[in-house]
Amino acid sequence: MPDFENFDVKSHLAAAAREAFDTMLSMELSLSEEAPPEHTGIKRMVGAINFAGSVVGAINIQITSDFGCRMAAGMLGIAPDEVESLDEVKAMLAEVTHIVGGSVESALNDAGFPCVLSTPAITFGSDFTIKSLNMERYERYGFQHESETVLMEVGLKRQGGGEDGAAFDATDISGRLQQADVEKLNSLSYRDRIEAAVIEVFDTMVSMDVESTDPVSAASLDGLRNTASVCFGGDATGIVNIQVGDEFSRIMAASMLGMVPEEIEGQEEIVDLLGELSNIIGGSLKSALTDAGLACALATPSFTTGTDFEIELLNLERYERLAFKHGDHSVFVEMGIKISDLARVTGQSADEVHFEVSENDPVPAAGEVFAETEAPATPLPAAAAEDSPPDSPEKNEAETSPGAAEDFNLELLLDIPLEITVELGRTRLQIRELLDIEPGSAVKLSRLEGEPVDILANDTLIAKGEVVVQNEKYGIRITEITSRMDRIRNLR
Q: I want to staple 93 with a disulfide (CB 3.0 to 4.6 A). Which of 47, 236, 353, 400 is the partner?
């Protein structure tokens, strides 16, 4: 039985955060021993990502907007005043959040708690608070870069029995996804599903009739407002937000409890109510997806309240915004979803499946190289460099000798970007066959199943490996590697 209480959140989070800041932003980050301060009354951003499965929870990474510009500048290699838009800052924070969350997710899976990640969301403004609901463990840490503080919060909870994580414990994702019902997925109307769930849950939980109306700006909710969010992850990832003004939130809670709004003190009843509403609405959407053959699980809801904030859903391919009315009161519901590229394969044999991995997938664990694929018949770029490395000079006998390889200054080469390629196999096609290729076509490769694949750096063989699917990530496990001296010599 995995030991959840002793799972070392702090060490995994700190290691992931330091590595992400170092490799992505060229910034040193250190864990502060002091209690992290509250960021209130200033413009700030929070990147949030959720876990779903046998363990549910969330990681929130909070920074000031000013430091966000510095971070984005570090990632882009420019000066902070050259950062052109807030979108660049949000994209950077989403990527950092995804990498840190992916590292903790991998550690949870390795510790025996199968789970998956949701897509990241960014909350930004100057007056808001966020908290994850119903957490079993909650830890809060402050990190320092020079005078700047980065606040990270982690909430985790075990699911009873771990049933929701069982589907994600299997490595045969291709076999699981081939069972998906494409007709059901294509016929699914997300808007109709969400609308029906909202109308039903308001009727059954708070005894209120709401009707759909034309969406208007959420800014029409003046003053204090509350948002409950629930994420899901797996073969489909997404999020559902329900946003209600504070006055109407109290009316709803009072109606559910058979009280008058003035008797609702504090926010406990409002938090519970909106969290349950988002859970039911998100659960309805999740049920439709699982009914179509996709394995996905809900995370626990989170609750955001304040007078000045926006929540932006990122890395999603489908977005719906709905508005409802009850008298003079408005309710806004947002839904974002992305079907995993792996879930698009159906009706194909195991050797015909075409896999694609999102560019936003977490950094792989040590010893594995995760590759993006565009077509099985071509080499797979695992880490495309922004700038092409300089052409290698021609080698003479002195340069290729072991002594010369040891003598040149390696420090000059360590920051040169390389393109890592994984070659699954090759094939020959006649021109007429090439012209007949279209989306969905299967290209058979010469390499047999289970045969090692080649891993190349700048078209030079550096290792061999085997294809693996682990924790829902498609990658390569290295089985053979050339000597360190041969790799150095070849890179020259």
A: 47
